[in-house]
Amino acid sequence: MPTIPEYTPGELLAKMESMGIPESLRESFRKCIDFHTYAAPGMLIGVFMVDCALKILGRRPEEKIFVTCETHKCLPDPPQVIMHATTGNHQLRVLPIGKFAMTFTPSSVKEYAEGIRIYVDRKKLDQYPALASWYDNSAAFKPATMKRQLAEEILAAACGMFSHERVRMKVTHKKKWNSVTCPSCGEQVPQDLMEGTTCAGCGSLAYYEKVT
Description:
Radius of gyration: 21 Å
Shape: globular
CATH architecture of the largest domain: 2-Layer Sandwich
Structural class: alpha+beta
CATH class of the largest domain: Alpha Beta
Number of helices: 6
Helix content: 25-40%
Strand content: 15-25%
Number of strands: 9
Distance between the termini: 53 Å
Strand order of the largest sheet: 2-1-3-4-5
């Protein structure tokens, strides 16, 4: 069977316009495609997930909202681009759970913050065969011939592929910390991140060897 090429970014954006996707949302897709470097299916799903979550919460993307992403694959990029929620500003946390789900909690000074957890609901994918087989990581999904169909089904499903639940999360407020010197490497680290007498970089999180 001949290969069916996937949509180029330009073709995909044109397809969105023909399907009546609003210009503001198409712009979010464009920015996320540029940031991610290609139109990955998981990233496309993530754009819809962010858009739907903001609508449910009645919030704007520029508001301070904390995001917890339950997979490192593709999904963390849309909240970074659309909401400027990053690991660097402490508004994005990525947990290696392996689920296509994100939790959105507006900033709160209380002990707990209330928000929503939104996730891909497998039961809602049955009418989208390419999306369902891709999501299941099934051999029935053929990348050489089904990528275009997959993109079309993601756009057609939009927020219809999700379910959500109201949740609350304990707020972790910023704490003061002391700096200490690791006796092994001689570098400064926060005291509470020390592993006994050495820093994690010299211990459990060591990831490189010095080249002499």
